[in-house]
């Protein structure tokens, strides 16, 4: 019996696909710093869930370190939670595409400062959240994000990122769209592939100057430690986000 052919990746889109139905999850992502380094696809392929492969642009893929403020997470259309649903977060992510051509991200770690969301994310959804002591501080046009890991480890893994926000990006490049306009997440749920779609307005992006980057979160996530300056540093004031329910077919919630 022949195996099904993989579909070509969908186009890189600056705007989301139409959102369908009642959202599973709503939240806002605020004050985001996007740092990216180029990486060989062969170096990260083994770290992706089954059924996905590294997504590439001109033969290169990327590792992202993204720091921001999560704001008012809400479930099933209910109002967002002010305390437990609002916290700093810093994630390490890779770029993926599946056999159906759907582009997405794969999270290797997500440091967050609220213990209950970390426990729920790990236990219920198998998402690699970790509990960290974190702070986001803004002074004029400079934003500093700090993180030091508590549980489950490696204890003490840390990051300190400081950026100076610059001018708005009038027309983002193909690479900037590739790194930021991602409309789904690939993960595994009890060792079976899962795709979770999301939608939000087009990113308002700004140039940013990296003032400080002292981190070992990328290496702690099982990736080669970044060498040299990031190839891309961007800032966004943020967007409201809605996550849809995973499609039952193809490659959505596993079915018998």
TrEMBL record:
It comes from the Bacteria. Pfam families: DUF2071 (PF09844). PANTHER family: DUF2071 DOMAIN-CONTAINING PROTEIN, DUF2071 FAMILY PROTEIN. This is DUF2071 domain-containing protein. It comes from Streptomyces thermolineatus.
């Amino acid at each position: 019996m022949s195996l099904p052919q993989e579909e070509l990746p969908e186009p890189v889109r600056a705007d989301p696909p139409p959102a369908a139905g009642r959202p599973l999850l709503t939240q806002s992502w605020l004050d985001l710093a996007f740092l990216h380094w180029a990486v060989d696809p062969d170096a990260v392929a083994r770290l992706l869930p089954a059924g996905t492969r590294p997504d590439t642009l001109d033969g290169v893929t990327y590792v992202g370190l993204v720091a921001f403020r999560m704001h008012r997470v809400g479930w099933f259309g209910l109002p967002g939670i002010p305390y437990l649903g609002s916290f700093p977060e810093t994630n390490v992510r890779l770029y993926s595409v599946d056999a159906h051509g759907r582009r997405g991200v794969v999270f290797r770690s997500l440091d967050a400062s609220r213990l209950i969301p970390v426990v729920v994310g790990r236990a219920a959804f198998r998402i690699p959240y970790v509990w960290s002591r974190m702070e986001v501080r803004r002074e004029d046009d400079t934003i500093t994000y700090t993180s030091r890991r508590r549980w489950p480890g490696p204890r003490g893994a840390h990051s300190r990122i400081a950026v100076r926000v610059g001018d708005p990006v009038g027309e983002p490049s193909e690479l900037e769209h590739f790194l930021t306009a991602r409309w789904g997440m690939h993960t595994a749920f009890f060792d079976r592939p899962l795709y979770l779609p999301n939608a939000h307005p087009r990113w308002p992006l700004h140039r940013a100057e990296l003032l400080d980057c002292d981190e070992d979160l990328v290496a702690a996530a099982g990736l080669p430690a970044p060498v040299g300056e990031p190839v891309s540093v961007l800032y966004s004031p943020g967007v409201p986000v809605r996550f849809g329910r995973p499609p039952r077919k193809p490659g959505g919630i596993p079915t018998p």
